[in-house]
């Protein structure tokens, strides 16, 4: 993992804001598999949106649900490790 901060801004109220970036690298020597192995993980975008949608009006929930279906997004992602 490689992390860095950018757009660092110091504010008059003694606070600081920034955008944090993360980049991950696959180290085959530390793994029992390789980058072509397929894994299934939770789709945090869909699951997080689902929790936030619980109290929204029905038309908004239907719109977001339709959007996820249009882009074939579900609660889980199945991809090769190298794509993640």
Give me the side-by-side strand order of the main sheet: 1-2
Percentage of residues in DSSP E strands: 25-35%
* Head-to-tail CA distance between termini: 13 Å
Mean pLDDT: 91
Helix content: 25-40%
* Class derived from helix and strand content: alpha+beta
Q: Please describe the biggest sheet, giving its number of strands, its sense, and whether it closes into a barrel.
A: 2 strands, antiparallel
Overall spatial form: flat
Number of E-state strands? 4
How much is the radius of gyration in Å? 19 Å
**Given the structure, what is the number of helices?**
2
Order of helices and strands: EEEHHE
Are there runs of 5+ residues with pLDDT below 50, and where?
none
Family: Belongs to the CD36 family.
Protein name: Scavenger receptor class B member 1
Membrane topology: Multi-pass membrane protein
GO cellular component, one term: caveola
Task: Describe the fold and architecture.
With 84 residues, the protein is α+β, with helices and mostly antiparallel strands. The chain contains two helices and four strands; from the N terminus they run βββααβ. It has helices at 44-53, 58-70; strands spanning 2-10, 16-23, 38-42, 76-80. The two termini are 13 Å apart. It comes from Cirrhinus mrigala (Mrigala). It is a multi-pass membrane protein. Keywords: Cell membrane, Disulfide bond, Glycoprotein, Membrane, Receptor, Transmembrane, Transmembrane helix.
């Amino acid at each position: 993992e490689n992390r860095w901060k950018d757009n660092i801004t110091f504010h008059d109220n003694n606070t600081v804001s920034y955008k944090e970036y993360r980049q991950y690298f696959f180290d085959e020597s530390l793994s029992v598999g390789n980058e072509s192995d397929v894994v299934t993980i939770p789709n945090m975008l869909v699951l997080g949106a689902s929790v936030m949608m619980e109290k929204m009006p029905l038309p908004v929930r239907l719109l977001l649900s339709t959007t996820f279906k249009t882009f074939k997004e579900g609660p889980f992602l199945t991809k090769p490790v190298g794509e993640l």
